[in-house]
């Protein structure tokens, strides 16, 4: 332990929100130092990461290539539903991000905290840990994502007081009631931002016979997507490929129809929150009447989602400040309290 502390003085220990859509890295005392898409472009024949100019096609560089690659290259998102779908590519991505932040020498590899979904299996957790170790981490701590989000949101997690966090990421929605520094009740739902994008793609196919890509779908969600009626409904012109003629074509869509397309994933998230509330202990439920629900993650930015969730539960709902960075900021706080929380979550502990 003493030697580990000494090495820690010379390494850039970091917290990582290894998300399905985006990876964020926080460094103790510096805040968020990296925020890039969880995307890697690889050569199909060699399965090696390709380069664009002098840069490896990872993160921002790779995302620009989605849907635009030649036949020999594919842009991969190696995380799916919050867990590793492609072990080798995840390792390459982590190696790139850790090296970019740490700029390390081999003898002073960093300690790394990685936020993981609360519903992850032991096998999935071991895959995350092994990938980080192979990517150059000296020691790996796996920290429950909803707890990290609650800490990053500034909730009083240490108190004997119920706090509820709903963290909507790209691949998972984490719903948890937290008290006394631990999760009292939770649900990890593999319905989140990606499912909203897929619902929009399906709507465009069915209604307009227009095929659009992931990036266009995400833009539609951000620009005109909503969960509740808007004071002034919006329209947007989008382009794609006509499924009948096979030619490029435009279509003008409305926020009302996109809201209807998003109804199913939005309802799934609301149902998960209600199920968690039903399992919550009575005294903690009483606390939630006063404290309400806090939302985090990129999915929480969908217009009106806080409103429909409040209507469905009867509780006040607020979106935390800077919801995209909550989990990463929570891992940075964990780093500052390694002596307290670290021993239970060290690499090799099969409970995490």
Could you characterize what this model shows?
The protein is 38% helix and 26% strand. It has 13 helices and 19 strands. The strands form six sheets. The protein has a five-stranded mixed β-sheet with strand order 3-2-1-10-11, sandwiched between helices. Helix 3 crosses helix 4. The C terminus is likely disordered.
From the alpha-carbon coordinates, what is the Rg to the nearest angstrom? 21 Å
Look at the structure and give the mean pLDDT.
90
Approximate shape? flat
Structural class based on helices, strands and sheet pairing: alpha+beta
Which regions are unreliable across 5 or more consecutive residues at pLDDT < 50? 6-10, 347-352
Total beta-strand segments: 19
Number of helices: 13
Could you write a compact summary of the structure shown?
This protein is of the alpha+beta class and 352 residues long. The protein has helices at residues 2-10, 60-63, 87-102, 122-134, 145-152, 193-208, 214-224, 255-261, 263-279, 282-291, 305-313, 326-336, 338-341; strands at 14-18, 22-27, 31-37, 40-43, 51-52, 55-56, 73-76, 79-80, 83-84, 111-116, 139-144, 163-168, 173-179, 182-189, 210-211, 235-242, 248-254, 293-296, 317-319.
